[in-house]
Write a structure and sequence with these properties.
Largest sheet: 5 strands, parallel
Radius of gyration: 18 Å
CATH topology of the largest domain: Rossmann fold
CATH superfamily of the largest domain: Flavodoxin domain
Organism: Amycolatopsis acididurans
Oligomer: single chain
Order of helices and strands: EHEHEHEHHEH
Family: Belongs to the NAD(P)H dehydrogenase (quinone) family.
Bound molecules: flavin-adenine dinucleotide
Helix content: 25-40%
Number of strands: 5
Strand order of the largest sheet: 2-1-3-4-5
Keywords: Oxidoreductase
Shape: globular
Structural class: alpha/beta
Number of helices: 6
Number of domains: 2
CATH architecture of the largest domain: 3-Layer(aba) Sandwich
Protein name: NAD(P)H-dependent oxidoreductase
CATH class of the largest domain: Alpha Beta
Amino acid sequence: MKVLWLFAHPEPASLNAALRDEGLRALRELGHEYVQSDLYEMKWDPIVREIASFDPDVVAEQEKISWADTLVVQFPLWWYGMPAILKGWFDRVFVKGFGYGLKDENGRVLRYGEGMLAGKRAMIVTTAGGRASSLGPRGVNGNLEQLLFPLQHGTFWYTGMAALPPFVVYSADRTDAAEFTAAASGLRERLARLETTEPIPYRAQNGGDYDSDLVLLPHLAAGRTDLDVHQR
Ligand code: FAD
């Protein structure tokens, strides 16, 4: 496979950097090709100064995405989302004419399952300070699977990419050597199944599940309004 590994942590000696190194080693051993965008190391400029500007640094990132069939997006969970430098990468790189803006011959907008990046896969690798229970379905921090919805559904799936279930290290601030070994081994195992892992079964916008106002048909997930209604 051809993997673009996006990495957003400022410290080369961090837990995240050590996991990234393990991940890239695993990809090499599995015979996959990869390129990396280490955003802090690249001094990536996250600020949008002009909407949808195809600056050379943006085009270089778009070329990496076009080359790749899989994106791995790695970041520490900061304020229940991604670090600003990574958000700025998506804001500047996934612009109309590259990430979205495609229509079919009938003028129908192609997004959520269809789109410019359809056929590619994307997987989040993240670390969280919170423990797994506190980021679970009834945890005080909110369900991490749902906290990641804007990236997994609103960005990956919106542009056509299949979102693989995320790889998460919980209680990351208390990681000891044994926990690191377990996390690294879990990551290697997930990377070994990159090609075969079933994506999150999000519904396609144009697959018949939504009405003309883009509202889920009433008989599907009847009576529910949580974000999981958008999964089959
Ligand atoms: P590091 O600080 O680098 O390391 C964490 C631990 O792992 C340390 O104990 C270190 O000794 C150990 N370690 C590092 N490398 C290795 C190695 N190679 N082998 C063994 N052990 C190692 N958490 C939430 O849950 N929700 C939030 O909303 C949230 N918001 C945050 C906002 C900010 C601005 C910050 C700074 C933190 C936030 N956190 C939050 C916590 C954050 O998610 C964690 O601090 C982060 O995920 C830990 O990853 P790291 O790479 O920075 O870890």
